[in-house]
């Protein structure tokens, strides 16, 4: 009835010869989610993701990015209805 999850990824993408960071490749990514499922078929979930700062071309750095998503759904026998919202912040 309860699903909890956390995903964490770290990277250090660099060019072999110069050692410079690969533009657009984030160094960190974190996502957490929680979903509650009622035996009667009702399901509610929330997901929050954060993408860390990313190096860009010519030494610039893009700010961190975050996304909050939520969903609610109902399942009855062989039919399912879902309503989801993304980028709620």
Written overview of the protein:
The protein is mainly beta. Helices cover about 0% and strands about 60% of the residues. The model has no long low-confidence stretch (mean pLDDT about 95).
Largest sheet composition: 5 strands, antiparallel
Which blocks of ≥5 consecutive residues have pLDDT under 50? Answer: none
Report the total helices.
0
Instruction: Report the sheet-strand fraction.
Output: over 45%
- What structural class do you assign from the helix and strand content? mainly beta
Residues in helix, %: under 10%
The Rg value, from CA coordinates, equals 18 Å
| Overall pLDDT level | 93
Q: Work out the number of β strands.
A: 7
N-to-C span: 27 Å
Strand and helix order? EEEEEEE
Main sheet: which strands, in order across? 1-2-3-6-7
Shape: elongated
């Amino acid at each position: 009835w309860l699903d909890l999850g956390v995903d964490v990824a770290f990277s250090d993408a660099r060019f072999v010869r110069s050692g410079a960071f690969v533009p657009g490749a984030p160094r960190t990514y974190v996502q957490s989610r929680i979903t509650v499922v009622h035996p009667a078929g009702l399901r509610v979930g929330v997901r929050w993701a954060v993408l860390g700062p990313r190096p860009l071309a010519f030494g610039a750095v893009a700010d961190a990015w975050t996304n909050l998503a939520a969903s609610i759904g109902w399942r009855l026998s062989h039919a399912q209805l879902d309503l989801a919202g993304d980028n709620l912040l």
